[in-house]
Amino acid sequence: MDALTFDRVPAYAAAVFAFGSAAVSLYWTLGGTVLLDTVGGTFEDLARERSPESIVLGVLVVLVKVAAGLLALAFVQPWGTRVGRRLLLYRPGWEAPFSSSTEECSSSLVGSYSLS
Fold it and tell me: Do 14 and 39 lie in a common domain?
């Protein structure tokens, strides 16, 4: 592998994992149950519930995972330069769900939305 191709491997791997995860989530959203018990807990209950709310949530999860795959590809594909690096790196409040405490989460959300 030349250096250019080797540098792109992580982005392609991220895209493959994101699209693969989206495919599994779509399968579960459409009613599939194979390997659903490996998830467990609330998410398994939601998938088995099949209520309109759980289906909408499943579709939103699929869309976010597809967006993550497209974002990974945007860093290595020619069409990614048209999107613009600043837009690709801009993340208003995305870190909030991953914060270690509720205070950090709420302050991150409030701070990011008060700027807009």
Answer: yes
